[in-house]
Amino acid sequence: MSLAGSMLQSSPTQPHINKAALEACITACFDCTQTCTSCADACLAEQQREMLLRCIRLDLDCADICDTTGKLLSRQVAFDSTLARVMLQTCALACRICGAECEQHGRRGMEHCRICAEACRRCEEACNQLLAVLVV
Amino acid sequence: MSLAGSMLQSSPTQPHINKAALEACITACFDCTQTCTSCADACLAEQQREMLLRCIRLDLDCADICDTTGKLLSRQVAFDSTLARVMLQTCALACRICGAECEQHGRRGMEHCRICAEACRRCEEACNQLLAVLVV
Amino acid sequence: MSLAGSMLQSSPTQPHINKAALEACITACFDCTQTCTSCADACLAEQQREMLLRCIRLDLDCADICDTTGKLLSRQVAFDSTLARVMLQTCALACRICGAECEQHGRRGMEHCRICAEACRRCEEACNQLLAVLVV
Amino acid sequence: MSLAGSMLQSSPTQPHINKAALEACITACFDCTQTCTSCADACLAEQQREMLLRCIRLDLDCADICDTTGKLLSRQVAFDSTLARVMLQTCALACRICGAECEQHGRRGMEHCRICAEACRRCEEACNQLLAVLVV
């Protein structure tokens, strides 16, 4: 079990939603925060920076949004499903837009963009899977 | 002019949207981040903490969401209106829910909740006013 | 009085340190978070980006550090002076290094760097003034 | 290899310091951000909240500090060893203070505090190991 999973297990407030989907989403959000922060920095160091401007910007936004989503989902006290739902939708969108941008550069050989695109895809999927089981 | 306004003015990337609405929204987001962080802490110190659990939790979420929104709006390079729109909607919702909770406690004499409710209302309004002029 | 000041005033936990210095430092930290976030973005859009790489990087670090310092100082419950002290020292250093870098570019006509350098200087001073009255 | 490790590997800017120690520290910082955020929430839900006030507060500080440290270390462009050093020292201290508090409650049977104390210890060690190889 992941650290996030052990923390959910040991909280006095048990989530009303599927714990496995919640755990996976929290982990994917923090992974994506790290990857997007790294990718913005790696893009900044590339020669073709002009071409990577949009990627850097989306990486910075996506890192902030995933960070906030990971923290919101880590809180179980007085969980507000309506707020969680819109935050998850925003996070899925950020990951979709950022992942698509990274994927293009990944295909042209930028390995950091390829890895980041994968992390964005996994986070987008994890958000969508949690949305599917989230009862509002 | 606010600091956020001067920074917008001096950026090589001029926003396509109303600069006054953007400036007001950035300032309101960072104000609300501070106020919600303080309010969570003040609620934690109150005697009636049981009653304030939901307020503390929403304060923490709202602080994170306003922080992320303020940063996203501070970036003008490759501005993505679709992502900005959903983030602003999420922020307006967080401020509405958190502001409503704080307002209740403010009416019962908790001054920190009353001030925080006002900051949430201002931020919600600033988000909605920016949404009204944001062309996607 | 600033919002941060009103929140301090209304908290059940009254700070043991000079409230005016604390209020000024919280406000300076959040101002600097915004300014550094904007400055990183403006630098990214400049033609001479190669020359601005260090500025962008320091802006991103300084934004994160000021944000964290502003939040830590906003919390009065079980205030740990030792931790506050090292965080303030770290924040003052980040602002000094980032401010010095920005100042150079400001002198060459980059207005966003000039404004950001000022915000960094104000935040560095506010941290140092709070450190001077912080009893460990 | 961890995601953070793959990102370091693929960045155009290769770190001058031990990559394994850097990777381990980045991962430990983001793990600790998640664990401390969860622990603050779990403590909030416990009956003995009065006893846990200091733990909640330190969890919130430690989460912010680890988050900022993980992001700073994820950036390799124009890496400033002096700033990295003080940030790592601050993070090690935050983890030590927060970990010690959590450990006490963990010994009294609070499983979330026990897990969080372990994450804090691992992060403190990872910071100290990176400090040991960081040349200023």
Summarize the structure.
With 136 residues, chain A is mainly alpha-helical.
Report the sheet with the most strands of chain A, covering strand number, pairing sense and barrel closure.
none
| Average pLDDT taken over every residue of chain A | 96
Low-confidence stretches of chain A: none
- First-to-last CA distance of chain A: 27 Å
Shape of chain A: elongated
CATH architecture of chain A: Up-down Bundle
Instruction: Enumerate how many helices of chain A there are, as a single number.
Output: 5
Count of DSSP E strands of chain A?
A: 0
Oligomer: homotetramer
Measured by residues with Cβ under 8 Å of the partner chain's Cβ, the largest interface is:
A-D, 39 and 39 residues
Structural class of chain A: mainly alpha
The tally of structural domains of chain A comes to 1
H/E element sequence of chain A: HHHHH
What does this structure look like?
4 copies of one chain form a homotetramer. With 136 residues, the first copy, chain A, is mainly α. Chain A has one domain: Up-down Bundle (Substrate Binding Domain Of Dnak, Chain:A, Domain 2). Helices cover 82% and strands 0% of the residues of chain A. Chain A is built from 5 helices and no strands. Chain A has helices at 3-10, 19-45, 49-74, 81-107, 111-133. In chain A, helix 2 (19-45) packs antiparallel against helix 5, helix 3 (49-74) runs antiparallel to helix 4 (81-107) and helix 4 (81-107) packs antiparallel against helix 5 (111-133). Chain A is elongated. The first copy, chain A, starts with a helix and ends with a helix. The relative contact order of chain A is 0.19. The model of chain A has no long low-confidence stretch (mean pLDDT 96). Chain B binds chain C through residues 3-4, 6-13, 26-27, 30-31, 33-35, 37-39, 41-42, 44-46, 63, 67, 70-71, 74-77, 110-112, 115-116, 119, and chain C through 3-4, 6-13, 26-27, 30-31, 33-35, 37-39, 41-42, 44-46, 63, 67, 70-71, 74-77, 110-112, 115-116, 119.
